[in-house]
UniProtKB/TrEMBL annotation:
InterPro entries: ArsR-like_HTH, DeoR_HTH, HTH_11, SUF_FeS_clus_asmb_SufR_cyano, WH-like_DNA-bd_sf, WH_DNA-bd_sf
PANTHER family xrefs: SLL0088 PROTEIN (PTHR38600:SF2), TRANSCRIPTIONAL REGULATORY PROTEIN (PTHR38600)
Alphabetized Gene3D superfamilies for the sequence: Winged helix-like DNA-binding domain superfamily/Winged helix DNA-binding domain
Coiled-coil segments on the chain, per record: none
Organism encoding this protein: Funiculus sociatus GB2-A5
Gene: sufR
UniProt-recorded name of the protein: Iron-sulfur cluster biosynthesis transcriptional regulator SufR
Length: 212
């Protein structure tokens, strides 16, 4: 069942939780401009459907509050780029060629993707190229965004709130290393560092991009 089939308010809740990681009912109500009572009804439905989970968090001296986040099933409602097929294919490739040869094939794939990105990004300033890269990633199923570091024109943060290849990354985490190299090769004359990683249990992947 695709996420688009969810009622719009529920879809908004899922997308907001995907973006920020976790939130209380009141925080969701404030962010989406919906009454807390309506939010709680939607949260109850989403939890019944197995799309979100909650935990109790102690806030100051008051009563513990429920904080909600996506379950794995909830994350799976977002684009995955045919992840299961890709994992099966890579398993077969590894069995046929061996791990080293399969890794070489993966590297070649990311090198080709980097060259494709480089051509499409052009030779503008880094700000424009990062903005274009984010648009390309969005088109590929990533919920991506970017912003400058303290209004800088030479340092930027690129954040991806869902991983379109999460199934592959869970089984073959080396693809994330290739992805890091791909960004650096595509942007040229830049250093790219990972700041957050979904595979490590964080709710987003983040990259610091520095002009060299």
């Amino acid at each position: 069942m695709a996420i688009a089939k969810q009622p719009s308010t529920k879809q908004d809740i899922l997308q907001h939780l995907l973006k920020i990681g976790q939130a209380s009912a009141q925080e969701l109500a404030d962010a989406l401009e919906i009454s807390p009572q309506a939010i709680r009804r939607h949260l109850k439905d989403l939890e019944t459907e197995g799309l979100i989970i909650h935990q109790q968090v102690q806030a100051g001296m008051g009563r513990p509050q429920h904080v909600y986040q996506l379950s794995q099933e909830g994350r799976d409602r977002f684009p995955s780029r045919y992840g299961e097929f890709a994992v099966d294919f890579l398993d077969t490739l590894t069995e046929t060629l061996g791990y080293e040869q399969a890794s070489t094939v993966l590297r070649k794939h990311w090198e080709r993707k980097a060259m494709e990105y480089r051509v499409r990004l052009g030779k503008g300033n880094l700000r424009d190229r990062v903005a274009k890269l984010v648009e390309l990633r969005k088109a590929e199923g990533y919920m991506a965004e970017w912003y400058p570091v303290q209004e800088s024109d030479c340092q930027f943060i690129l954040t991806e709130h869902n991983c379109a290849i999460s199934h592959v990354a869970s089984s073959f985490p080396s693809v994330c290393g290739h992805e890091l190299e791909m960004f650096a090769a595509a942007l040229q004359n830049c250093k790219v560092e990972r700041t957050h990683w979904i595979v490590n249990g964080e709710h987003r992947c983040g990259y610091l991009i520095k002009e060299q």
